[in-house]
Structures are given as C-alpha cells and as structure tokens.
Amino acid sequence: MEPTNQKFLERVVSQKALQMGSSFPCQICVVGFLCGVCLTSLFLAVLTSVGTFGFTGISFSSLSMGNSPLNSSSEISNVITSSDYQSKVKETARWVDSKGREPESDDDERVSLLTEAWGALLADREPEESEFSKRFGLSKSSLPNTPHLENCKLSAQVNKRLDTRSGAGRFPPWTTWKGSLNMYPATETDENLRSFKNQPVSDGAYPPWIVGSDEENYPLTRKVQSDIWIHQHPVNCHDPNIKFLVADWEKLPGFGIGAQLAGMAGLLAIAINEKRVLVTGYFNRADHDGCKASRGSWSCYFFLETSQECRDRAFELITNKEAWEKGTIKGKDSYKSKEIWTAKVPRVWGDPWSYLQPTTDINGSLIAVHHKMDRRWWRAQAVRYLMRFQTEYTCGLLNVARHAAFGKEAAKMVLASIDRDWPKVITNQPKSEIEEFVWSNHRPWVPRPLLSMHVRMGDKACEMKVVKFEEYMELAHRIQMHFPHLKNVWLSTEMQEVIDKTRSYPHWNFYYTNVTRQVGNVSMATYEASLGRKTSTNYPLVNFLMAVESDFFIGALGSTWCFLIDGMRNTGGKVMAGYLSVNKDRFW
Questions:
Q1: Membrane-spanning residues where (predicted)?
Q2: Which end of the chain is more exposed for a tag (fewer CB within 10 A), N or C?
Q3: Could you give the CA distance from residue 245 to residue 278 in angstroms, rounded to a whole number?
C-alpha cells in the first residue's frame, strides 16, 4: 500500500510541475538560466585560452633597486613581451593554472627561489653562510651552476696574468692556450710545456682579447693589437729613451663617453706616431663611490693602457722641468684640439682600411667605400685596446644586468636539467678539471640569437638625421626574415617614448636597463646630470658591452656611440654579422 501511495504522489507532483512549466513566466526563467550557463562557459573558455598565451612568452617584470637583493649598482633590467593588459591576463592565468596544473605552481616557486638565491650572491655585500641559509633554507654550495653569470674574481685574475710581463721582462703567456687553461697546475711541472708557454709573441701567439680569425675581424686586427700592447708595455720604463704622453680624459659637460673615447683614440695615435707611451690621467666618469680604490681612474672599468711601472715613471717626470724641455714628456696641452680630434692615423701597418670588408648596410645597399675609412679602422683598434679587459667591477655590472634580464630563463633551464625534487634533494658533486679549466672560459649564457638596438634621438637631431623607432624595427624585421628564430632584442635608448612603443611589438622580447629616461627633448648633458655620475656612466657601459656581445646590431652611424660599438664588434669577431644602420656617419 505504501508504494502505491508514493507512486500516486509522484504522478500528482509531476503533473503539477508540468502545468507550472508550461506557464510563460517559468519558461522565461528556464531560458534565462540556460543562457547564463552558456555565457559562463564561453567566458571561461576564452579566459583559459588567453591564460595559455600568457604563459608562452616571457612575462613583464620590473625590478627596482630599492627592494631587490640583486643589486650592486643602480642598474637593473626589464623584459617585456606584450602590451599593458598582460599584467591583468597574468592574474587570470595564475588562477587558471593553480586550478588545473598544480605541479607547475611548484615549478614557479622553485624558479623564484633559485633566481632570488642567485641574485643574493650579486649584492654589494654577499650574505654570510648562516644569513643565506636562514633566508633561503639553502647553503651556497647547494646552488646549481649559474650559466648566465661570470666568475668575475677569477676572470680578473686570469686577465691580469695575461696583461703583465713576468720576471725579467718576459712576455705574458700568450700561447694558443686559452684563459684558465694557462693556469692548469700540471703545466708548471712539465719543462716542455713551461717553455712553450713562455715563447715570445712573434712565434705565433696573438692577444687573448681578440676573438675569431683574421677574416672575422678588421684587417690586421690581431697584429695591430699585439703591436699596440708591446708599444705600451716597454720592458724598462726607466730607459732614458722612453718618452711619455700624459693626458686626462675630456671632461667638458657636453662630452659623452663616446666623445671621450674618440678623443683618447686620437691621443693614442699621436703617441704611436711620436713613439711615446700614452698614460691616461683623470677620468671624471669614474669619480663616484662605486669605483672605491680606483676612483677617478679608467682602471675602475677597464685595465689601464700601460703598466703601473710606466705610469709611476711618467707622473714622476711631470714635476721635472728638464723632462718637459727635452720633450721626454708631453701633455694634452702640447697639441691643438684639431690635432687630437683629427689625429693622423698611424701608417706603421700600411693602409689596411683600404680593404675593409663591406658588411655595413644602409638603405639596403652595402657600403664598400666611404670617406674617413682610415679613421673608422683606427678608432676601432684604439677602443678595442683601451677596453681589452674588463675589471671585476665592470664584470659585476654585467652580471647584475644579465641576471635581471635573463635570470628566470636561466633558472628554468637549470631546474629542467637537475633532480626534480631540488631543493629537497641536493646532489653536490666536486667540480671536475674540465669544468674548472676548460668550460670556465665560455662566455656567460644569454638567449640567442640576440639583436642589440641603439635608438638615438633627442638632441642628436642637431648632428644627424634621427628616425622613428618604427624604422629601426623595420630593419629588425629584415634580419628576422633571414633568421626566423630571432626574437630577442637588447634595447638601449635615452627616450621613454621608445620604451613605450615596444608594446606595439608583442612578438618580440625586449630587454632594457631600468633607468629614468627622457620625456621630451632635453640636452644629453642635462639628462646625464639628472641621473647622477654613477648611473649615467654604468648603464651606458653595460649597454655598450651587451651590444658588442650580441649576434646582430642595428644603430645609427651618425652617432659616435654606435660608431664605436660597430668598431668594437668589428674587432671582436663580428664582422660577418653585418651592421644595419638607419643613416650614414655625418663625415661620409
């Protein structure tokens, strides 16, 4: 009886529901509910697809010097791959990812931990082991190798050895053995190897700061660099026949670093022509707290142009009236300004500039012949020599910049190659000899191919034709058409509007230093003064050296800065990479 009553009630309820469902208000409610479900499903589908896009590229990151543990200077880098709205997309992407793929959330935490731990080692004051362990729950020795960072202390030691005459005036160990391999202990006990390593340079060795063959550099680069070093490092600086030219770097407010380098290139030409040893004096851009012991000296950033013995001797003779009268010593005031800026290019190597490789592209054509080819060749040789070895300080600036720009990418690569349970599971292996003496000579990792682009605008319009950022990007697209895997750009510019326009190119990865830029048109001197001496020197040098190491370069030959970058690349094994310029040098 009870089941029958239950069935009866169910039929009554069903009929009642059917009557209610056939009513118009109920139908409206049902239709509205179904539409809501459809719209919600569609919205979630769109969010999911957009979230996936957000994870495919490198997300926008902005690190400030005030709260980052990475900083050893006021420079750091940003990377941007899409427009402003992506920051909002990232929030959605994180939400979707946390719901659907929890393991990747753990990976993100590991990447952040490793990136920050690496960065802590780059701080002005490296944390003690106990402090590091408390902060990260790790020991320093448990950190994996940093592929994008250089061992600056070791590099400085190796380079000093390669830049110094040993006992009895013997030549530095410029053999065909590279970098740290020259310090391999076993070679010190083998008499044949010791003899080989001390052979004079004329027996086939060439300067270790030159990369690539003769065909990959300006003509005679290896020989010229060797000869300049020998000229600047006499065996006996107290020899009465040794003459000196002592000169401070230009320090007028309107002179940028490019102009200072061009001026010193002229003085080096005069010194070689007159058989004098060039000795540089005060460098105003190094007159800041970051340079510490080498304040006010070129040696804050790069190795000095001559030995300390010759410098001491030259500064001793400065106070000697007889030395000035005999011409044993001269200063910058001994020459007219025109003699310095248009100095006669040394002819001791003939005229190698007459057969420069035509690898400069302007308006789609290669430039084979132009005015001032001798000056272009010489300035490249002079600047390469003056910048032949970076100091530990400069190396550290580059480490900070690379870590800020590429640190997360490097961490992802490293974590993909080690135990997935790191840092819970740590396997420490002693460094092998091949790691210490062979692989340590490889350059730090950067995402390649890498295109460097220097966009010069602002007050430069009074000296050359300036073009819009869009024209630079047209040249970048030309390179990409031939090298379709190119997507990374190291961008250097003083203009904020250029940085803003990068958002219009979401398929490119832009890296740039995080520094205050010009808004509007002000003079370069005013802009640099607003940054302060330390920042206005450090960040351009980082950009310069990153441009030299990049695979491709786009610039404006009308800019002295671009002109010198081109010269450094053409004496650094990059001739066949070519150079796309938006204009000609103003003297051509």
A1: 28-55
A2: N
A3: 5
Residue with the two structure tokens 């092998």 = 432
Lowest mean pLDDT among 77-91, 161-175, 261-275, 425-439: 77-91
Pairing of strands 360-362, 365-366: antiparallel
Q: Which residues contact 180 (CB under 8 A, 6 or more apart)?
A: 154, 158, 436, 437, 438, 440, 441
On average, the pLDDT of the chain sits at: 82
Residue 336 contacts by C-beta under 8 Å, 6 or more apart in sequence?
none
Q: Residues 392, 229, 172, 235: is their CA dihedral positive or negative? A: negative
- My answer on whether omega of the bond before 208 falls inside 30° of 0, hence cis, is no
Residue 365's DSSP bridge partners are 362
CB 197 within 8 A of CB 176: no
Does the pLDDT value for residue 39 go beyond 70?
Answer: no
What is residue 46's predicted lDDT score, i.e. its pLDDT? 42
Neighbours of 65 (CB within 10 A): 16
Q: In angstroms, rounded to a whole number, what is the distance separating the alpha carbons of residues 555 and 454?
A: 5
The residue that leads in pLDDT, 450 or 443, is: 450
Report the alpha-carbon distance of residue 228 to residue 465 in Å, rounded: 35
Confidence of residue 72 (pLDDT cuts 50, 70, 90): very low
User: What pLDDT is stored for residue 48 in this prediction?
Assistant: 43
Q: How far apart are CA 574 and CA 427, in angstroms?
A: 40
Per-residue confidence at 507, pLDDT binned at 50, 70, 90?
very high
Q: At a CB cut-off of 8 Å and minimum separation 6, what does 377 contact?
A: 218, 219, 345, 352, 353, 356
- Asked whether the beta carbons of 163 and 172 are under 8 A apart, the reply is yes
Cα–Cα distance measured from residue 139 to residue 383, given in angstroms and rounded to the nearest whole number: 42
- DSSP H helices, 284-421, are 308-317, 321-326, 337-341, 373-386, 392-417
What residue type is 260 in one-letter code? Answer: Q
- Whether the predicted pLDDT of 333 surpasses 70: yes
Q: In what order do the strands lie in the sheet with 77-80?
A: 77-80, 509-513, 488-493, 450-455, 552-555, 579-581, 360-362, 365-366
Beta carbons of 548 and 443 less than 8 angstroms apart: no
Model-level pTM?
0.80
Contacts for 519 with CB less than 8 Å, ≥ 6 apart: 496, 497
Q: What is the DSSP letter of 34?
A: H
Tokens of 512: 């740039």
- Helix-, strand-, coil-residue percentages of the chain, each rounded to 5: 55, 10, 35
Q: Whose CA is closest to 588, among 381, 367, 347?
A: 367
Over range 501-530, report the average pLDDT: 90
Q: Which of 531, 541, 518, 524 is nearest to 253 (CA)?
A: 524
Domains of the chain, with CATH numbers? 206-353+372-389 (no CATH), 450-581 (3.40.50.11350)
583 near 465, Cβ under 8 Å? yes
Angle value at C-alpha 297, between 320 and 243, nearest 5 degrees: 35
Segment 414-442, tens digit of pLDDT: 999 988 888 888 766 777 888 777 877 78
